[in-house]
Amino acid sequence: MEVRALCIRLLSTASMLLVAHVQRSYPQTSGADFRIVPSRLQLFDHESVSFSCQGFNVSAGWRVRNIKNRTSCLKSTVTCTNNYAWVSDSGEYWCEAAGGERSNTVNITVTGGSVILESPVLPVMEGESVSLRCRTRKNVSDLTADFYKDGLLIGSSSTGNITIESVSRSDDGLYKCNISGAGESPQSRLMVTGKCKDSC
């Protein structure tokens, strides 16, 4: 029994490594973007969410994949929609063309909790301003929210919104928010990229 269990574990590990190797071998298509509507990284369960792939040859077909190696949709149109997102749908997503080319990867969190943090889906360029919003499931306004970066309090807001002016690489990190009496949001990564150069 012990030998059989060891073999099963070895086969499982080998399968995961093979999937990871295949995923890394796919080239990322320059200018191809994965986009999500609504344009935020966190969703409440049972919300509707749409995906779109830009920069691909749509007529050749593309699909949305996730880190669990599942195909969310296989389309020859511009967008695909999941009418009811579940907590189990959380994870990394990307667009994949028929030839294996991939877009950027987006990490989506679907929560069964009462609070989410609205933050940019795509990386933000240095020097730009970024707005973060803490929102409850019932969308109640005028609730004081505390905002955290990498576990440290960075500010509070009586409107549930906070703006980071002229972001820099040091603002890259994991953000979350908390509304007293309502709950705490999951964490999402705010990615900051370097300033665009002449080759952009």
Task: Explain how this protein is built.
With 200 residues, this protein is mainly beta. It has 2 domains: 26-112, Sandwich (Immunoglobulin-like), CATH 2.60.40.10; 113-195, Immunoglobulin-like (Sandwich). The chain is 12% helix and 42% strand. The chain is built from 1 helix and 18 strands. The strands form 5 sheets. It has a 5-stranded mixed β-sheet with strand order 2-8-7-4-5, with no helix packed on it. Residues 1-30 have low confidence and may be disordered.
Write down the secondary-structure element order: HEEEEEEEEEEEEEEEEEE
Q: Quote the distance from N terminus to C terminus.
A: 58 Å
Helix-and-strand structural type: mainly beta
Counting DSSP E segments of at least 2 residues, the number of strands comes to 18
Instruction: Give the overall silhouette.
Output: globular
Q: How do the strands line up in the largest sheet?
A: 2-8-7-4-5
Output the number of helix runs. Answer: 1
Give the CATH topology of the largest domain.
Immunoglobulin-like
What about the largest sheet? 5 strands, mixed
CATH architecture of the largest domain: Sandwich
Tally of structural domains: 2
Determine the CATH superfamily of the largest domain. Immunoglobulins
Oligomer: single chain
Helix content: 10-25%
Low-confidence stretches: 1-30
- Rg, nearest Å: 19 Å
- As a percent range, the share of strand residues is 35-45%
Would you tell me the overall average pLDDT? Answer: 76
- The CATH class of the largest domain turns out to be Mainly Beta
